[in-house]
Amino acid sequence: MNLLVLPKVELHLHLEGCISPAEARMLADRRPAGQGIGPSDLAACYRHRSLKEFLVHFGRLVDLLANPSDLAWLFARVRGRLRRQGVVYAELRVSPSVWERHGLPTEETLDALLDAARAGVPRCSFIIDGVRQWDRRSLIRDFELALGRRGRGVVAFGLGGDEAAAPSSLFQELAQEARKHSFPIIPHAGEGLGADEVASALDVFDPPRIGHGIRAAESPALLKELARRGTHLEVCPTSNRRTGAVPRGKRHPLAQLWAAGVSLSLGTDDPALFRTTLSRELQWASRRMGWGPQDLARSQELAARASLLPPAERESLERFVSAGWSAGALPGEGGGPTIRSRGDGACWTRV
Ligand SMILES: [Zn+2]
């Protein structure tokens, strides 16, 4: 099965984690003399032995983004890569508080990005990710940035960062405010902390999706609850391995989550820093978790269903993904038909 030609949906992807080594070099070369970063320092940014090291490297790469147009430039390149991967719809996370700490103006950068994303293939939407353990002022500012750009490409507010330093229980008021506006919050949960934190995130936010959520597998009762609610988990296997969320020697809980009937799909998280792609994540599930074509197709249909597009577009995407995978999975098709989303992204058709 040629995965590249099958229509895919990616729901967990941080734009700032998409700076490839070649792009980092290009960005570094644009810096004034003396402010650059040497080739060996740059190469070291792609080798991490722990989550702590990963976060340092992430920050060093974000430092290379010197102005709003750099982020729009990066987005255009990432969109091209997604297209070549056969991704027909993506929801990307971006973190204005991180930009601010690295000297980028938040509003101007976000608007440059939303303008760059408005037309083109694949269709892309954004989740504004607040850094949960940083100051509350920045978090509220990010929430308002997101809410104010709803309908202009922003579909939700996310909560990323250190779960242990700022667990979901601290965000009751934010959850209430989001509920008032019927604006979804999609937290990262159950990556660093265990099943209790996933349960707490469910209680506090009642989110349509959870970033990671893998440690829900520690609690059969919670798995049942996730399946009952239909909460979708954005599972990022390579990231889980590289950050140590799933320690070496321990089996990834994907198979357990899937067997429990939890809605889930695979994501790349920070693909450049983890050296992965969505197709590689799917290949991994196929080789290591025993997923057959039907499992891969089903998870992609679930991703389309869990997207935060307006209902009519979401249904159109779901039909498109489903049709593509059933055609591609036919025996003797030699990898399936070439399917692309229509140029304006307003709906998805075969071309
Ligand atoms: Zn993430």
Average pLDDT reading: 90
State the name of the first-level CATH class: Alpha Beta
> Uncertain runs with pLDDT below 50, 5 residues or more?
329-339
End-to-end separation: 20 Å
Question: In percent terms, what proportion of residues is strand?
Answer: 5-15%
Number of strands: 8
Form type: globular
Number of helices: 16
Q: Main beta sheet, described?
A: 8 strands, parallel
The helix-and-strand class reads alpha/beta
**CATH topology assignment:** TIM Barrel
CATH architecture: Alpha-Beta Barrel
Query: Main sheet: which strands, in order across?
Result: 1-2-3-4-5-6-7-8
Share of helix, binned: 40-55%
What name goes with the CATH superfamily?
Answer: Metal-dependent hydrolases
Order of helices and strands: EHHHHEHHEHEHEHEHEHHEHHHH
Bound molecules: zinc ion
Our Rg estimate from Cα atoms comes to: 19 Å
Count of individual domains: 1
How are the elements arranged and paired?
Layout: E1 8-14, H1 21-30, H2 39-44, H3 51-62, H4 68-84, E2 87-94, H5 96-101, H6 106-117, E3 123-131, H7 136-148, E4 154-160, H8 172-180, E5 185-189, H9 195-205, E6 209-212, H10 220-229, E7 232-235, H11 237-243, H12 254-259, E8 264-266, H13 271-274, H14 278-288, H15 293-306, H16 311-328
Parallel strand pairs: 1-2, 2-3, 3-4, 4-5, 5-6, 6-7, 7-8
Helix pairs in contact: 4-6, 15-16
